[in-house]
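User: For my dataset I need records formatted as: sequence, then structure tokens, nothing else. Please produce one.
Assistant:
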Amino acid sequence: MTRAKADAGRPARGQFASTIPEVDTRRGLFAKLREEVEILHAFGLKREEIASVLEIDLRDVRALCPTPRKKATSSLLPRRALIALLNGRHAIRGGATLAERTQRLADIASHYTEEEFSNEPGVGAVTVIEVSLWLSERGYSFRLTRDAHVKSRGFSQQQET
């Protein structure tokens, strides 16, 4: 049998690499698992609870779990949140200079909806939760979307007709 005949039934080199979704790769699955562990940890679940919820070994949770912070609720925002707020789409509402924006971080953050803020570069689910907690410490919150505002008032499009 010649080499050409042996290779005839095989797919071309790299053909499968483009058909496999990114999440299904080992690295993608690992990143997704790490994010789920971080979110559950941010909600206050213990490592044992996280292991049982995700059905993984406790040693894996310890490896994936973020290191505990000095304070449970920090008055400081994480660096990625600061960068997103100071350079994001609503940053101009805080002022023209960086110094003015730094003084009005809560005002800037309260102009975002949770979805808008999660779409900023470098912001994930954990950062959204951290900023939400930081805002609530100061008496602020993320802006409600129009749909959430309508639902909170008890209205729907079906009731209007």
